[in-house]
Amino acid sequence: KNEVEQSPQNLTAQEGEFITINCSYSVGISALHWLQQHPGGGIVSLFMLSSGKKKHGRLIATINIQEKHSSLHITASHPRDSAVYICAADYGGSQGNLIFGKGTKLSVKP
Amino acid sequence: EPEVTQTPSHQVTQMGQEVILRCVPISNHLYFYWYRQILGQKVEFLVSFYNNEISEKSEIFDDQFSVERPDGSNFTLKIRSTKLEDSAMYFCASSKGLVETQYFGPGTRLLVL
User: Fold this and answer.
1) Is the CB of residue A39 less than 8 Å away from at least one CB of chain B?
2) CB A32, CB A63: distance < 8 Å
3) Which residue on chain A is closest to B101 by alpha carbon?
4) N or C: which end of chain A has fewer CB within 10 A?
5) A86 contacts chain B (CB < 8 A)
6) DSSP secondary-structure letter at B100?
């Protein structure tokens, strides 16, 4: 069964800290998505990547296909980054449905 | 910026009643999805839809569920006879193509009593 595992489950950081959230998955993915879920429940897509690295502002996502591992980094974290960060895998040949991790709840303290 | 919209934002219903959750995907998108998230749990795939038919469905998506694109804009999820365990947040998403960024709606919070 295709699974997506995230760590840590919860993360508390001080404002300004560098944050890393990890995601591991089974073989054969077409793409790996990083999503942000706000306290109100809304989901925003941050990145979709199938190789290498992507950067958007203070957010960086990397993926290592050989190790079946992806990381989401937040530089100079801010309290407004507090949210649940979810990775989701597209295993391909499945018409685009995503398999979600359980999420990492990030709290950034001022 | 175009966005996916969903109505209603909240719905309370009695067990056994039918509910229809509505979504308006982004206009030039071709792939549509429904996901659900039971409180405190991870998001789960329900169904994907392309070219006016179901592309794939999960084991959750049993005979009580159906989807429809009744016109050029709306995408609906119908739950025929709701059960208590159907209480969840339901998210609609759309994407331009396969293996592309999916854009999520704000969700409909369904409570079955």
Assistant:
1) no
2) yes
3) A48
4) N
5) yes
6) S
The closest alpha carbon to A49, from A66, A26, A27, A72, belongs to: A72
Does B109 reach chain A within 8 Å, measured CB to CB? yes
CA angle A103, A108, B1 (to 5 degrees): 70
CA B54 to CA B70: how far, in whole Å? 14
Give residues with Cβ within 8 angstroms of B72, minimum separation 6. Answer: none
A39, amino acid identity: P
In contact, B56 and B46? CB cutoff 8 Å:
no
CB contact under 8 A, B43 and A94: no
Please tell me whether residue A12 adopts helix, strand or coil conformation.
strand
CA distances (Å), origin A93, targets A28, A89, B9, B101: 10, 12, 32, 16
Task: Indicate the residue type of A5.
Answer: E
- B9-52 tens-digit pLDDT: 999 999 999 999 999 999 999 999 999 999 999 999 999 999 88
